[in-house]
Amino acid sequence: MAEETRDTILNAAEKEFSSNGFDGARVDKIAKKAGVNKALIYYYFKSKKELLKALYERLVKKGFSAFDYSTLTSDDSPENEEKTHSSMHEIIQFLETHRDIIRILFMESLKEDGQNMLLDLADFYLDDATKGLSSVLDESTDFNALDKKQWMMTEVFTALIPMISYTLFKGDIQKRLSVSDEDMDHYFMKSLKETHFQTHKSFLNNTKENKE
């Protein structure tokens, strides 16, 4: 029941933030949309900022759960390529349906006097990615041997930020290039494959070599 109430509040908060932005969103309106009193919202979330942070945590858990981490430890067979493309396409589609809340994340993170919400999202994403990758590593790979700082830099700058940017600017670039949705996704996926996924495989190879 508590989890259901929390989700109801988060659903209402996403609608309010998406319609009015972070500064324009009002907790009393969120309460009205959720059908709860304002005090109950503050019982679950200490502030409006905490509400937004919880939305990003849920975004990562739901959005990136589609990714099959076993594809990073497999060969480059057509079947594996298809699995990777399918899971990434699902993630991109999910992010596109939540474009408004991602836009708020982007704008809030650019404020010099504000909390960088992108770093909060990065923490959630890195935690999810670490668990996902750890779950599919075999005994020949020592995950603890990874350079954690390099791991964070790679995940944030070759995966998280590119996916956020693609979600926000896809439409404008698509108009400029006059290409279809399918072609846009194809070009973006190719870029990810040649940067992010290749780096992943290099990391894994290095940890295997270190363990040996």
Give structural notes.
With 212 residues, the chain is mainly α. It folds into two domains: 1-45, Homeodomain-like (Arc Repressor Mutant, subunit A), CATH 1.10.10.60; 48-211. The chain contains nine helices and no strands. The chain has helices at residues 2-24, 27-34, 38-44, 48-63, 78-97, 99-109, 117-134, 148-177, 181-211. The longest helix has 31 residues, at 181-211. The chain is globular, with a radius of gyration of 19 Å. The mean pLDDT is 82.
Task: Give the structure's gist in a few sentences.
With 212 residues, the chain is mainly alpha-helical. Helix content is 77%, strand content 0%.
* Structure annotation, total helices: 9
The structure class reads: mainly alpha
Order of helices and strands: HHHHHHHHH
The radius of gyration computed from the alpha-carbon positions, rounded to a whole number of angstroms, is 19 Å
Helix content: over 70%
Compute the number of structural domains: 2
According to DSSP, the number of beta strands is 0
Low-confidence stretches: none
Beta fraction of the residues?
Answer: under 5%
Through-space gap between termini: 50 Å
Mean pLDDT: 82
From the spread of the alpha carbons, the general shape counts as: globular
Largest sheet: none
Outline the fold blueprint.
Layout: H1 2-24, H2 27-34, H3 38-44, H4 48-63, H5 78-97, H6 99-109, H7 117-134, H8 148-177, H9 181-211
Helix pairs in contact: 1-2, 1-4, 1-6, 4-7, 7-8, 8-9
